[in-house]
């Protein structure tokens, strides 16, 4: 069993302790360090191999957005899952553009935490369903794109599986098509929607009610 090295980045010590306790129930996950702000995380990353960072948004000295941008420049293979609370939606598009793989509400239990981690390490993305529903309920939210694009039936099938966190290999197996065909459909989806990455694609699909949550 491969072991994945995690860092917890949050300015509240009690929250970090609680999250570490939850991670003890996920055998292949090992917490190798904690940080209370982005600067501490960058110092930690310079001295430890980190596969996944669980990243808070609002922190002193250097916030989660700045830390994510800097860390992914230095360590492009690093996976980052944002730890969020309701009311922080203004940061989501920027975090998506920075390259994060998922969003997890801070009140999530161990099952959802594990689901998010498994999705990300398998090359997929993860969004808390409660968080997505909250975004849809925001009356003043800005439209992600002016018009919903026209997608083929196969593109819709691929998009649905992307939104469920499946990687290209799994999508190919489920739809009985080649990995290369999935790559082509994913590229077409990104091109048609103007999304820079798969996580933005998920947000697009939800905001425009292409998929149901």
TrEMBL record:
It comes from the Bacteria. GO terms for biological process: phosphorelay signal transduction system; regulation of DNA-templated transcription. The modification 4-aspartylphosphate is found at residue 56. SUPFAM superfamilies: C-terminal effector domain of the bipartite response regulators, CheY-like. Keywords: DNA-binding, Phosphoprotein. One of its GO terms (molecular function) is DNA binding. SMART domains: HTH_LUXR (SM00421), REC (SM00448). Residues 5-121 form the Response regulatory domain. Residues 144-209 form the HTH luxR-type domain. InterPro entries: CheY-like_superfamily, NreC/VraR/RcsB-like_REC, Sig_transdc_resp-reg_C-effctor, Sig_transdc_resp-reg_receiver, Tscrpt_reg_LuxR_C, WalR-like. The keyword Ribonucleoprotein does not apply. This is DNA-binding response regulator.
